[in-house]
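Action item from last week, closing it out:
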Amino acid sequence: MGLDVLTFLTEQGLTPTPANYELAYCYRSDRQTLVARAIDAVTMTGDQLSQAKATELLAVLRQTNDSAPDDERSRMRDHTRELADLAALAKAATGQFGRDLAGGLDEMGVEGVNVAAIVSAMIERSRDTEQALVEASRQIETLRQEVEAAKGDASRDALTGLHNRRGVESEVLGLSGRQHSVVALCDIDHFKLINDRHGHAIGDRVLKAVASSLAESCHPHLVARWGGEEFIILMNGVDLNSAATMVNRARTQLSTRSLKVSETGELLGTITFSAGVAVLDGRKFEVAVNRADILLYRAKANGRDQVISEPVDP
């Protein structure tokens, strides 16, 4: 493997530094990984992998494998899959170019053959290949920028754009003790089945659709991603009954949306969530969230697609 790695570095004109060796080792050890496919998208036409691109891809590799949260890893997987698709497109176009060229040379001596048309078709395919590779480079740059943006905004969820746990905790510190405050936890029903049946890329789209629907239904209150398929709603200045009514309305509005896979037109069916709603007044935030969590799982146990709130004090 060591010789294979050094050969790759030599072919690409990369200095055999520890960082470059790490990237090359990962590339040579498993050519099916997402970063390996991104490298293929850049080098497949014989161009060398620049040091700048190698550094960017290594950063993505490390971010994906080590320190990125689940949602950010998912976003990077999606973008790198797009790179893989572009690489496949470029490879197919290049192969077709070669076959057309060979066939065209054989036919150029045949009477009645339109040589100009053959050459024009080959040039057009060459342009398609070039455009695909340009797009691959653009995707890599977009991926790099998104990784940097995610690092720079620690209070935001990279997938949905909503606040994350850190952002919610900051908002809680600013709550006024003179107003009623209520917290709700919402969990998408049967989300694992969506991922298992349609894949994580579709699962991510569902998460974004639910995030958008909740934010719209519960405006102007804070809606945040609490983790995985779970969302939290922080409502200030409303009582428990009003808060439960709002969350239930959000549940109903989501269930009326028709979601489908855009590439195939396949319907995903009704997307629902279960929720627990608890009072925050006079409680530590952690205590209120724990209470809402208990009510959420009671809603799950009772059949899902429902909202359960604390009893209202007489």
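Closing note: Residues 107-113 have pLDDT under 50 and may be disordered.
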